[in-house]
């Protein structure tokens, strides 16, 4: 087992990792930018190293500074959390070259699964259902238009190196294909330094359902059921739940087996998710693979009674998977509480938290790094806290979520708490009758 882990991240996920490390008896090192000197992950780690100014590219994305911090403190492993360098193949390689264990997949796996066109072809080759589309990168508009006409409109143009909803455009017919293709490619180039795009049939009114997988170096891969991430805005998830309201035990088994097949095809080690689109006929199609821990991992932990961060660290140390999957129990929902103003196009609202009260009680979990008088910096993601609730079934979880949100108090900045309460009162959400277009329709009511 590792003796000391450096957490190359900030906020709630850094604190989440520190807590698991303490339970495993592992020393921790926090890295922080000048803007995060008063953050809780800095307070609760055994050691802390400032790695630069507030701007991410000069701190949390600056690989030499992070490697130096690990070497100076004697850390034998680095946990990247999610975002920042978590899916950076170069960082994974540099860790290996520096004799520091990267708690995540190899550079080869990250590169393979991070390239969506390559990942899709890999899954298709290994029998995992995929959305009809181009066999690889499309460089010319006329080539893309030919493929789009062949598979039928509407189509979606996606950046191969995309993420977070960037580099994605829908073309509903031939007349708007060129504009959509140009915009997707341009955004991909500016956001990821790579203009390459591929094309897929656009599945209308789909559900976004992902399978949690975990693999070790002995070739074992397990799945821990699914999460429904369909409540999203501009491809950014807002509410996640497990299990999915539309997935039957039979479909869960089928999707889980497909996810395991896909993960084994690349000899995957560590935690990851295989993401699918599910159409109204319950057909499912591979969308992408995330080679890291997900923001929404706690809902899986709640119904499977598993600490996924612990499992991630254990398999990275070279051991077998410790906690094997069993049947899910109950229902869990996660609400992402952001410092944003839903009435002003969800604009970020950095500032000082004047008053704070977390809800509690049975079946309520809070993952957060904020506290009263904490000043939210304007440089990073606006996530303040994740509220995760558990209930014996979905109606029970919804009722508990509503109670907890009403009890949650954050004053001094605008938050998405009122927005979540409105969603929980929507009859389509309550009935489970929604898809990835739910928020767009909800906001126009």
- Total number of helices: 15
- Please state the CA-atom Rg, rounded to the nearest Å: 21 Å
Going by CATH, what is the homologous superfamily of the largest domain? ATP-grasp fold, B domain
CATH fold group of the largest domain: D-amino Acid Aminotransferase, Chain A, domain 1
The CATH architecture of the largest domain is 2-Layer Sandwich
- Main structural class: alpha+beta
Mean pLDDT metric:
95
Broad CATH class of the largest domain: Alpha Beta
Domain module count = 3
Low-confidence stretches: none
The total of beta strands comes to 22
Task: State the main characteristics.
five-stranded parallel sheet; alpha+beta; eight-stranded antiparallel sheet; 3 domains; 445 residues; Rossmann fold; Dna Ligase, domain 1; D-amino Acid Aminotransferase, Chain A, domain 1
Summarize this entry quickly:
By secondary structure, this protein is α+β, with helices and mostly antiparallel strands. It has 15 helices and 22 strands.
Structural notes for this entry:
The chain folds into three domains: 4-103, 3-Layer(aba) Sandwich (Rossmann fold), CATH 3.40.50; 132-201, Dna Ligase, domain 1 (2-Layer Sandwich); 207-443, ATP-grasp fold, B domain (D-amino Acid Aminotransferase, Chain A, domain 1, 2-Layer Sandwich), CATH 3.30.470. It has helices at 11-23, 40-44, 63-73, 89-97, 107-114, 116-125, 141-151, 177-192, 249-265, 297-304, 308-316, 394-407, 417-424, 427-431, 438-443; strands spanning 4-7, 27-33, 47-52, 77-79, 101-102, 155-163, 166-171, 197-201, 207-215, 221-233, 236-242, 270-278, 284-290, 331-338, 340-341, 347-348, 351-352, 355-357, 364-368, 375-376, 383-391, 409-411. It has 445 residues and is α+β, with helices and mostly antiparallel strands. It is built from 15 helices and 22 strands. The strands form six sheets. The chain has an eight-stranded antiparallel β-sheet with strand order 13-12-9-10-11-14-21-19, with helices on both faces. A hairpin with a 2-residue loop joins strand 10 (221-233) and strand 11.
């Amino acid at each position: 087992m590792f003796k000391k882990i450096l957490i190359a991240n900030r906020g709630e996920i850094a604190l989440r990792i520190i807590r698991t490390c303490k339970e495993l008896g592992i020393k921790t090192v926090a890295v922080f930018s000048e803007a995060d000197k008063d953050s809780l992950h800095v307070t609760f780690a055994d050691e802390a190293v400032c790695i630069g100014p507030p701007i991410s590219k000069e701190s949390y994305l600056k690989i030499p500074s992070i490697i130096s911090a690990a070497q100076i403190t004697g850390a034998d492993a680095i946990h990247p959390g999610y975002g920042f360098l978590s899916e950076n193949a170069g960082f994974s390689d540099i860790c290996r070259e520096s004799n520091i264990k990267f708690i995540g997949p190899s550079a080869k796996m990250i590169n393979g699964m991070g390239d969506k066109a390559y990942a899709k072809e890999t899954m298709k080759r290994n029998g995992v259902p995929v959305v009809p589309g181009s066999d690889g990168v499309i460089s010319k508009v006329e080539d893309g238009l030919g493929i789009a006409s062949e598979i039928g409109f509407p189509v979606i143009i996606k950046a191969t190196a995309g993420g977070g909803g960037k580099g994605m455009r829908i073309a509903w017919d031939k007349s708007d294909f060129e504009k959509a293709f140009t915009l997707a490619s341009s955004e991909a180039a500016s956001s990821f330094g790579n203009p390459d795009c591929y094309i897929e049939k656009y599945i209308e009114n789909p559900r976004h359902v992902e399978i949690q997988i975990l693999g070790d170096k002995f070739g074992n891969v397990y799945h821990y059921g699914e999460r429904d991430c369909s409540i999203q805005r501009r491809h950014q998830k807002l509410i996640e739940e497990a299990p999915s309201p539309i997935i039957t035990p039979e479909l869960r088994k089928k999707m889980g087996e497909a996810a395991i097949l896909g993960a084994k095809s690349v000899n995957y080690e560590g935690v990851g998710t295989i993401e699918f689109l599910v159409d109204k006929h319950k057909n499912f199609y591979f969308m992408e693979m995330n080679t890291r821990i997900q923001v929404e991992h706690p809902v899986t932990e709640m119904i499977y009674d598993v600490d996924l961060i612990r499992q991630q660290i254990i398999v990275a140390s070279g051991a077998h998977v410790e906690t094997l999957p069993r049947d899910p129990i109950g229902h869990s929902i996660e609400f992402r509480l952001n410092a944003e103003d839903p009435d002003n196009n969800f604009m970020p609202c950095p500032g000082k938290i004047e008053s704070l009260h977390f809800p509690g009680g049975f079946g309520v979990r809070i993952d957060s790094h904020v506290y009263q008088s904490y000043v939210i910096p304007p440089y990073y993601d606006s996530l303040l806290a994740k509220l995760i609730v558990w209930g014996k079934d979905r109606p029970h979880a919804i009722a508990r979520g509503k109670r907890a949100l009403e009890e949650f108090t954050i004053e001094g900045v605008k938050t998405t708490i009122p927005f979540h309460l409105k969603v929980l009162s929507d009859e389509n959400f309550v009935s489970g009758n929604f898809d990835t277009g739910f928020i767009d329709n909800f906001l126009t009511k």
